[in-house]
Specification:
Length: about 240
């Protein structure tokens, strides 16, 4: 069984390789579901690892409905990844009605070239998962990362098994909440790959900073933070 580790740093990636992971999915900001890692991090990880490196292409946290500018950024990120010799791309785009944006997803798939292509957990939001999987498989997607449309892969095991039965060329890769305590269930169920982060919290400094840097406001999964030009103009005017 392939064990793919979601790594958020060079240290995490090296730890995953040392522990025996078969490949990694590289990203940043794990608590937000992951976004595309920096150019520097991708380059250093690809140079340091001997196991396959797949890179998440997601320009921001939140939903999976992207503006034209965001989509162009995704294509540029894929071009950088292929130039660095990464082994796989992990991505996908949805429409506001929660269906797959096939035109854009196919464009990402084509841009990935010879890299393996995994459609990520945006799949867990689609209304017709079995029909959608058939289309992804027909498109040539190599793997599908999914929790079975549940909060955890264990809870979504029923749908995951249905997807596995339909799988011919596309590997079903359960992910979300997989630990050393439940991974065996997916092996016994016949899955060929699993995805987990296997993270732990470490104390980086002994005290909290005097001034917090995290934004106090929270945003919902269907909200996006964007600079308001009117507010900015007022600020600029006030200081000039």
């Amino acid at each position: 069984m392939i064990v793919e580790v979601c790594a958020n740093s060079l240290e995490s990636a090296l730890n995953a390789q040392l522990a025996g992971a078969h490949r990694i999915e590289l990203c940043s900001e794990l608590p937000s579901g992951g976004i595309t890692a920096s150019y520097g991090l991708i380059k250093k990880v690809r140079e340091a690892l001997s196991i396959p490196v797949h890179v998440l292409i997601r320009p921001r946290s939140g939903d999976f409905f992207y503006s034209d500018m965001e989509f162009q950024t995704m294509l540029e990120d894929i071009a950088i990844c292929t130039s660095l010799g990464v082994d796989g791309i992990v991505s996908g785009v949805l429409n506001p009605d929660w269906s797959v944006d096939w035109d854009r997803t196919k464009a990402l798939f084509k841009a990935a070239g010879n890299c393996s292509f995994t459609f990520h957990r945006a799949f867990d939001l689609v209304a017709n998962p079995l029909e959608t999987f058939d289309k992804l498989q027909e498109m040539g997607v190599d793997a599908l990362l999914t929790s079975g449309q549940a909060a955890s892969a264990m809870e979504g095991l029923s749908l995951l098994k249905q997807l596995e039965k339909k799988s011919n060329t596309c590997t079903i890769m359960p992910g979300a909440g997989i630990t050393d305590n439940n991974a065996i269930h997916f092996k016994q169920a016949g899955f060929k790959a699993i995805h987990l982060s296997a993270t732990k919290k470490i104390l980086n400094t002994t005290a909290l900073p005097r001034i917090p840097m995290n934004a106090a406001m929270g945003i919902a999964e269907n909200e996006v933070l964007v600079t308001d030009p009117d507010i900015l103009k007022k600020v600029i005017k006030s200081v000039n």
